[in-house]
Design brief:
This protein is of the alpha+beta class and 76 residues long. It contains one helix and two strands, in the order ββα. It has a two-stranded antiparallel ribbon. It is elongated. The protein starts with 18 loop residues before the first strand and ends in a 10-residue tail after the last helix.
């Protein structure tokens, strides 16, 4: 295949590094409930949240800009 080097990465863990800018609560996963009346407040993005992809893109774009990359006008 044209001697191209192919590299891939699993980014599920990357979602955990993005700070949330809104208040989101969730119920503890099954098996971890200490008291049935408690909920958890999320402080970081979590894989599966509807906001996770958008937060990850903003986080990644900010880091790439720090390294001197410039976004295309279609990406802004």
């Amino acid at each position: 295949m044209n001697n191209w080097f192919v590299n891939s990465a699993d980014v599920e863990q990357a979602f955990l590094h993005c700070d949330l800018h809104e208040t989101i609560y969730m119920q503890p996963p099954a098996g971890l409930e200490e008291d049935g009346n408690k909920v958890w407040r999320l402080r970081k993005g979590l894989y599966g949240l509807s906001q996770a992809s958008r937060l990850f893109f903003k986080h990644l774009a900010a880091r790439l800009k720090e390294f001197g990359f410039v976004a295309a006008t279609s990406d802004e």
